[in-house]
């Protein structure tokens, strides 16, 4: 997403509430104009006084998360002392479990995996780190007929998820002479599932693991038909829809809590902690949302809302609203970073430019004052590159040019933030179809392979020696995951109904029944 460019620095701030209110009024009016017709890309002339200028409309749906609704969100889990005390007690019991599981390494691995999927692993980082340092020894010590596909694959995945280097050769004993899975594992549903999930941690060149994944996927479909375990069947269906490694952790936690409840071997202490912890975190998010929505909210919370709104509006200006002449003038003004360069811009662009100019300058001043670092050249360059990428796509649209897939990708790594819902520049699948005169199915398969190739690079980087913390690395990986989430089944960002609405409600509104 476009706002990911700003994750490495502190968020922007606007000089005053009056100017911010003016910007928000503009943003609201801007989106109302785009709602003038349910038809996508229908032209409209109702703009800030410039009657006769033909503009496109994005066909946005009306917002469903109003200010009053956000302010009404309340949860007893935020400040209830009884909840905090019970959560602390349960964390102590789980920590004790991790320390006492010494006789069965696999049981400990399974508990760690369960804690990760339930969103609880952050509470037990020291215990998990200590355990995983010994996992490689365990995986290499159990060989031949005694070796478990499930244990090996689970250990492989957990190690790579935490940045440890593990060779794909740990799976060699499960393969026959021609590189296929040995026949005796064809009905090992649990082992196949672990292999399939672990295979998505592969890197470039690991063909044995890639082939094993394809075999595991086909065998899992057959196992699914013969399996009577409801919990295991749910996990198989979930994995075949989208692998765990590509899923957003917090949304996965919400889903997995419901699935884990159906596990006949579930740990009731762990499950209770997961439900309680999820509801307490949800309450914190609700509190943050209320503060971000309120004009009198604190600076840091308000700033993030402002910068996201600013990026969204400017993206829309390029994508659907501005004329090509206006966009060229606006981009030139951004590149020159001169407030006097905006005289020829229409009113709505002047508001955008003032908001951006003052925001970036103040943020740079605050950073210099607090950290002694001059980030203004960097921020100007980031915004200039972003706007140039937007402008190139606008030019493609206005001249009717259909870029090649590579041309689109070279530009879109900066500009991408919306799916094709407005009939604008062709996106990746359409570019491939036009360039190669190929059907949509072939184009989708090609783009899927590009995504898989990108994940291989991500996997390799996250196992390399890095000056960044694991937390930072996980956040960076989550940016790829959120893109997959938002656009897997269409435009989940601009269209707020359907899957997007259900996800928001489950994460931020509806608590999980507890006790």
TrEMBL record:
CDD domains: Terpene_cyclase_plant_C1 (cd00684)
GO biological process per UniProt: diterpenoid biosynthetic process
Signal sequence annotation: none
Statement: the UniProt record of this protein carries the keyword Ribonucleoprotein: no
Limits of the Terpene synthase metal-binding domain: 293-419
Keyword Coiled coil: yes
Coiled-coil zones: 202-229
Keyword field: Coiled coil, Lyase, Magnesium, Metal-binding
Every Terpene synthase N-terminal domain range: 64-240
Cofactor(s) needed: Mg(2+)
Record-level Gene Ontology MF annotations: magnesium ion binding; terpene synthase activity
Name assigned to this protein: (-)-alpha-terpineol synthase
Source species: Hibiscus syriacus
